[in-house]
Design brief:
The chain is of the alpha+beta class and 448 residues long. It has 2 domains: 217 residues, PmbA/TldD superfamily (PmbA/TldD fold), CATH 3.30.2290; 222 residues, no CATH class. Helices cover 23% and strands 36% of the residues. It contains 9 helices and 19 strands. The strands form 4 sheets. A 6-stranded antiparallel beta sheet has the order 3-2-1-4-5-6. It has a 5-stranded mixed barrel with strand order 7-14-15-16-19. Strand 4 and strand 5 form a beta hairpin.
Length: 448
């Protein structure tokens, strides 16, 4: 894996070679990564792995024709062959009136921000093994846990560099760490399983292994002895673990590509009230140590915090340059990409802002409803917004959390869900997409 400076130079050199060989425009992306992980089960070592790799991708333009090619061989000879093949592919590609680099006048000219994404660490396998064992031991010590699916700990480091023929070149380095545990409670046909995990950019920011293992165990034990649900329309409370999926459906529906293809249920929603008053959906690529932070987007454009939804109103699409041209708007600085293919649009650190009521207050206000802690399957139509998913969780009975429920189905339409949902006040920033508990006041619930 190259250093950030050498990665940036390698990408810039490939772009320069493509221009000298006849490309009208070009960009290149370098991705290098190193990772290692250890997994254990029942205190026995199950797996130790370590990998390191690097790839570079080149995109060239000849007029409105373009082609993308990638390789893991970074030698000078391989770079030359890449350029020749990419140019030959572009000559045969169909014309695309929306193809091209990001507008030159919009590219980032300042030095990219330092987001503190790299702690410089590289723990040895024994350190990771000890953390995995601690998580599993903590989980297995909880009464009711009868078996283990295992625990793991991992670390990684990555380099991302991009260079364009209109003058942008930059690179970033980031580290990442994770710890997880999964256990079984009960026995025979009554067995239930659950898990817990945490990831962070800095090793020091990881939750304790004991805390992760304890959460996994408590969740598994709580799911024992599920009961059936009386079908009907009722309030559904989405635990933060699954409430983030609602934001995922929202982002897919406002992507520039989906809008340009007219394949989104939110085609006419821009500038309208999509959520209730007071609700904000915030995107922050510049969050220090954020899991999805980035100092520039995948086309070299500047990035910054923004409210995708402000006071319930949808304020923007997410558009990289190609879809922005189709929609007649400026690119929004949300381009994401790897070494293969053209950029797409996606958020960075996405957050549904908290509401004013506590989770406990929401629960106490529900006479009969469901708290969902797990979602199963897909069951979401991005064109119509129809929503139907398998779920598991707990009954809410007369304002209190009741017995577990499993194999249920919850259904509605995402437009209705967005318009009526209420976020609780329990937001915690822990992932790349974060949400508090969310209450949807009326959904159809039935046994699966």
């Amino acid at each position: 894996m190259l250093s950030p400076v050498k990665a940036q130079d390698k990408a810039a050199a490939l772009v320069d070679l493509a221009r000298r060989k006849g490309a009208d425009a070009a960009d290149a992306v370098y991705v290098g990564d190193r990772s290692q992980g250890v997994s254990v089960r029942l205190r026995q070592l199950e797996d130790v792995n370590r990998s390191e790799g690097e790839e570079i991708g080149l995109r060239v333009f000849r007029g409105r024709r373009s082609a993308t090619i990638s390789a893991s061989d970074l030698s000078s000879e391989a770079m030359g062959e890449m350029v020749e093949r990419a140019l030959a592919m572009a000559a045969e590609a169909p014309e695309d009136q929306f193809a091209g680099l990001a507008p030159e006048e919009l590219i980032l000219r300042d030095k990219p921000a330092d987001l503190d994404l790299d702690d410089g660490g590289d723990p040895d396998p024994d350190q990771l093994r000890q953390r995995a064992l601690e998580a599993e031991d903590a989980a297995r010590s909880v009464k009711g846990v009868t078996n283990s699916n295992g625990a793991s700990a991992s670390s990684s480091a990555s380099i991302f560099a991009i260079a364009t023929s209109h003058g942008f070149a930059a690179a970033t380095r980031a580290t990442g760490y994770s710890n997880s545990a999964s256990v079984v409670a009960g026995s025979g046909s009554a067995m239930q399983r659950d898990h817990a995990w945490h990831s962070a950019r800095h090793f020091s920011d990881l939750d304790s292994a004991e805390g992760i293992g304890g959460r996994a165990a408590e969740r598994a034990v709580a799911r024992l002895n599920p009961v059936s649900v009386r079908p009907g329309v009722m309030p559904v409370l989405f635990d933060p673990r699954v409430a983030t999926t609602l934001l995922g459906h929202f982002i897919a529906a406002i992507s520039g590509a989906a809008i340009a293809r007219q394949s989104s249920f939110l085609l006419d929603a821009l500038g309208t009230r999509l959520f209730a008053e007071g609700i904000t959906v915030h995107d922050d690529p510049l969050r220090p140590r954020g899991l999805r932070s980035r100092a520039f987007d995948g086309e070299g454009l500047p990035v910054g915090p923004s409210d995708l939804v402000s006071d319930g109103v949808l304020t923007t699409w997410l558009a990289e340059s190609a879809s922005a041209r189709q929609l007649g708007i400026a690119p929004t600085g949300h381009a994401v990409r790897g070494v293969s293919g053209a950029p797409a649009a996606g958020p960075a650190n996405l957050t549904l802002s908290p509401g004013t009521r506590s989770r406990d207050a929401m629960i106490s206000s529900i006479d009969h409803g469901v708290l969902v802690t797990e979602l199963i399957g897909q069951g979401v139509n991005g064109v119509t917004g129809d929503y139907s998913r398998g779920a598991a969780g707990f009954l809410i009975v007369k304002g209190e959390i009741g017995p577990a429920v499993a194999e249920i189905t919850i259904a509605s339409n995402l437009k209705t869900m967005f318009a009526t949902l209420e976020p609780a006040s329990d937001l915690r920033i822990r992932r790349g997409i974060d949400s508090p508990t969310v209450l949807v006041p009326a959904m159809t619930v039935a046994s699966a």
